[in-house]
Specification:
With 450 residues, the chain is mainly alpha-helical. The protein is built from 18 helices and six strands. A two-stranded antiparallel sheet has the order 1-2. Strands 3-4 form a two-stranded parallel sheet. The protein has a two-stranded antiparallel sheet with strand order 5-6. 40% of the residues are buried.
Length: 450
Amino acid sequence: MIDRYSRPQMSQIFSLENKFRLWQEIEVLFAEACAEQGTIGITADEARWIREHASFDLAGIEAIEEVTNHDVIAFLTNLGSYVDRDVPAGTPKPSRWLHYGMTSSDLGDTALCCQITQALDLILAQVRTLGERCKHRALEERDTLCVGRTHGIHAEPMTFGMKFGAWAWALKRAEQRLVDARALSAARGALSGAVGSYSSIDPVLEASVCERLGLQPDPLSTQVIARDNHAHVAAALAGCAATLEQVATEIRSLQKSDTLEAEEPFAKGQKGSSAMPHKRNPITCERVCGLARVVKANTQVAFDNVALWHERDISHSSAERVVLADSFIALDYMLAKMQWVVDGLILYPANMLANLKRTRGLIYSSKVLLALVDAGITREEAYDIVQRNALVVWDDIQQARSGLDYRGRLEADSRAAALLNSETLDAIFEPRSFLGRMPILFERLQKLEF
């Protein structure tokens, strides 16, 4: 991921430095486990020596890989040079115990799973923070009236707190998918040898190393940990990105000049347009929507990586080095930006009320329909009365003509007027009459925990 959309802590997880540090730790833990179990000839002193002298340098690894064209061998050669440094003359080289019986994927896949769990922990912390912030703002705005929209068209009255609440619940679902991906697919390790048969490695060693890394041994890894695990993780990241895209899209829609019910923060000194200085554009939400496309698209690559030849090939390796890191880094950035947006989201309740009234009472049509049915006529007849009068008001609005609002039109309709008295109409044309049962939504939200 380019620097523009990268944050230091997440980028560090997918750095070469961190990857090689994990490779080093796995090699050292394996040597220590071998010494403890006594399954091969390594002594406790040699394992201790390896622990104390293990190190590497990136330039050295790069120089060796230029010749070997193999990153694991380049790393092991460089690591071994540090381990063997200062070994007394005539003493066997401790580096001979490095990578004993292991294959490249044992090292690379186990370390990658460590990186993924590290990254998921960062993502989960951010999702929980954003979820809590949405919940908090939902409770703050539980009574802020606005119009609901379906198909982009005014529907019925609701409150803005419901929007924040819906986002909080969506983030809770995203959190659960990420937790499941971490537990079921990410936190795995494999030290089982060339085709996963433990031909030169006791499974006890694998269990020991995985436990110290906070992983579970993969039950049957052939030579690689199956990539449906990684696809599961990528799908969970994409699901979270899609949720952020949903939130950002709603804010963008509400920020349109014609609507202007909400607006993302506009920082002091910020500029909108190079040509039109008056502009305050929803650029952060647009950026989140754009990056969501990247994270979602990367999921296809992760699923394509599942089908490998026989026990292993490396067609997945080059692709996942790009898409896994990019998805995590992009999502980390997106979450941070959406925290800023949600915290500082500017609301315009007066505009919400103006928009609520914009359709001259048409948004109360559903209550009119039910009241007419309650008055004793069929639903079909009631629908005809409601729609016939609504279409006249709608046409007046579209033609910018003055005319009766919807209540006035019903009062002028002899059939409707005979069935609906003034008291009934007063109750119908009160926006909060739609919200009598809304408290249950916020009672549920109060119990939501991240």
